[in-house]
Amino acid sequence: MDTSELIAKVRKIEIKTKGLSNNIFAGQYHTAFKGRGMAFSEVREYQYGDDARDIDWNVTARMNKPYSKVFEEERELTVMLLVDVSNSLNFGTAVCFKRELVTEIAATLAFAAIQNNDKVGLLFFSDRIEKFIPPQKGRRHILYLIRELLDFQPESNGTDLSVPLEFLTGAVRKRCTAFLLSDFMDTHDYSNALTIANRKHDVVALRVYDRRMEQLPDVGLVRMRDLESGQDMYVDTSSPSVRKAHEQWYSDMQQKLKDNLTHSRVDSVSVRTDQDYVKALMGLFAKRN
Fold first, then answer.
1. Please, what is the Cα angle at 80 between 142 and 37, to 5 degrees?
2. pLDDT tens by residue, 47-88
3. Which letter does DSSP use for residue 55 in this model?
4. CB-based burial of residue 9 (10 Å sphere; 0-12 exposed, 13-18 middle, 19+ buried)?
5. According to DSSP H, which parts of 21-138 are helical?
6. Which helix or strand (DSSP H or E) is residue 131 part of?
7. Which among 9, 216, 218, 280 is least buried, having the fewest CB atoms inside 10 angstroms?
8. pLDDT of residue 149
9. Which SS3 state, helix, strand or coil, does residue 120 take?
10. pTM of the predicted model, to two decimals?
11. Cα 37–192–90 angle (5° rounding)?
């Protein structure tokens, strides 16, 4: 898209998502995603029950009586948005494409994060790392992220969820909250990578999907294309066995995802392209409070 069109879309996204994060998510985000680190605050006289490991021996020696260090939770977070840009996201039969929904959700989370003085980073992935934007603060940075979300073009079409998860584990040293935004249409085994990433960081899975992936409509012989492989095929949707096979395939994919999330202890929410993602996110935040 040309520059003027891109600027207009960025502004539209900013107005909508910033308003949502200001009016709806501010308090819920703050309590749902708390700082995980502990920072030194002050020293005070040792009290019965204090952990002996927290005694400040330098102060104790100067004052001739025991003093303990007091710690408080670090509020500032680092938020990483892991965004699937594989070709399967360029699909939608109702209100919008899956990629458009991912962009709005990511922008809303980004504005909610900077409201709480958190840093936000962005990682685009397909079956490879497409682009990494390190975490920073501020409105200018968020607008840059939104421009990238709207206009980024990947080099690869496929999906491999283990790739961004392994990158997150290895490249992001400080513990962060990582939102994994994808349709999770991945045939690779990513369970181990998800488990390891969630041990080091706080991973949250945000799945987007379209209603037509759940059930094929009975519309006769249809030419279909696999968006990731580029392969064309003709499918007889009037055949009950074909529709049943598709439903079984989709069910198996969802069961695999459910099993992986349960095993890895990752919080998750699913949002359909024709549904309100605000309600879904509010439910996720409430579950974590």
1. 115
2. 877 778 888 888 888 888 888 876 555 556 899 999 999 998
3. B
4. middle
5. 26-32, 57-63, 98-115
6. strand 129-136
7. 218
8. 92
9. strand
10. 0.78
11. 95
